[in-house]
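[Discussion] Sanity-checking designs against the backbone

I'm trying to build intuition for which residues belong where. Below is a structure token string of 191 positions. I'd appreciate it if someone posts a full sequence so I can compare it with mine line by line.
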């Protein structure tokens, strides 16, 4: 019986460190890279990155000395989730992110940043409906620019938490227990 619990514990522990490599579903065409380069140059000149949600909402992301600020999240904690629709650990995180968005409504803003190039918005909207996602999902060429701006995203899910003033508080790689993120949110809200 004890042996069985040991296996369950080891499996649960392994899931905490599970992540997907972004390389699995990289685009092979060079057109996307050319478009990203054009967009990246334009956005570097303005010192802002404009993320676009699947519903057409624009989110201005501005680099600061300590992190990033987000136009749609004044005086809120921001949790950015870099993900892909094909990534099982990313899908496993969604119910937890939904719970946190609901629990801290008005105090936290969760932004899902899709890192799959050329994903059709209609296909992504179906994914959002299938998983009942209650937070913003962005889908634009600027997503990769933002991923590069935070230092590069090699494995997913990868989340970064920013404080009310845009300061980088912490980050998470792989599947993370909801309780851990919740605890970090509570600590950030007290600052």
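Best answer:
Here's mine. Compare freely.
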């Amino acid at each position: 019986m004890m042996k069985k619990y040991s296996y369950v514990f080891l499996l649960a522990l392994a899931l905490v460190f599970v992540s997907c490599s972004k390389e699995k579903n990289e685009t092979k065409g060079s057109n996307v890279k050319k478009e990203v380069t054009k967009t990246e140059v334009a956005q570097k000149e303005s010192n802002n990155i404009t993320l676009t949600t699947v519903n057409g909402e624009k989110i201005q992301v501005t680099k600061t000395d300590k992190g990033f600020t987000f136009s749609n999240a004044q005086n809120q904690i921001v949790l950015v989730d870099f993900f892909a629709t094909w990534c099982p650990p990313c899908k496993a995180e969604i119910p937890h992110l939904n719970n946190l968005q609901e629990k801290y409504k008005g105090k936290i803003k969760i932004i899902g940043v899709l890192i799959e190039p050329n994903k059709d918005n209609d296909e992504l909207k179906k994914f959002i409906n299938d998983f009942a996602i209650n937070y913003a999902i962005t889908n634009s060429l600027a997503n990769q620019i933002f991923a590069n701006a935070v230092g590069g995203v090699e494995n997913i899910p990868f989340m970064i938490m920013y404080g009310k003033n845009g300061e980088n508080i912490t980050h998470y790689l792989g599947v993370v227990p909801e309780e851990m993120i919740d605890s970090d949110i509570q600590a950030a809200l007290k600052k």
